[in-house]
Write a structure and sequence with these properties.
alpha+beta, Arc Repressor Mutant, subunit A, 8 helices, about 40% helix
């Protein structure tokens, strides 16, 4: 990696996404690029770029990261501040873990918010051709077990279709 760069675009090739966002925030004033700072060569200095970059990312995470608690599939509760690092340490997808932490998703690979009860789909209630009533939350599993088409059964459940292979909404 060269110690000096001819342009900001050349320097950005060596930065991660988080570091790029940090530098964009650092060199912007009121949401607009400051031409005096932004067009200057930010990394034409004495070779401490890697150390400076690492410290800048750590400072950014320390300043903006939110603390969170999360429950593992085994029931153990973890407390952390850096969700991306936590996801890497536990072989989880960072985006899906963030969705769980923010409440947009109820569960990811068994990890959930402490004390929450994950929802698995919409509740259904169907009547089979033999007259038996089936209730649950997982239409996909019912369709696999009974040899039905998921799309058609979803339509029956929503009332868009009267019946599918003799199955009706109960």
């Amino acid at each position: 990696m060269p110690l000096a760069y001819k342009s900001r675009e050349e320097a950005r090739k060596y930065l991660t996404e988080v570091e790029q966002k940090y530098l964009d925030k650092l060199f912007c004033v009121n949401g607009k690029k400051n031409p005096l700072i932004y067009n200057a060569n930010p990394i034409a200095h004495h070779g401490n770029f890697t150390k400076d970059r690492t410290n800048a990312v750590k400072a950014y995470i320390e300043k903006y990261a939110l603390e969170f608690d999360i429950e593992s599939p085994s029931g153990e509760i973890y407390h952390s501040k850096n969700a991306a690092q936590f996801a890497r340490d536990h072989s989880l997808d960072p985006g899906n873990l963030a969705s769980v932490i923010q409440g947009r998703r109820s569960i990811h690979k068994g990890w959930k918010l402490p004390g929450s009860t994950p929802k698995f789909g919409i509740k259904y209630r169907f009547k089979s051709p033999s007259g038996e009533i089936f209730e649950g939350h997982n239409i996909s599993q019912l369709c696999r077990d009974k040899g039905l088409t998921k799309v058609r059964m979803s339509k029956v459940g929503r009332g868009k279709q009267a019946k599918h292979r003799g199955w009706t909404k109960a």
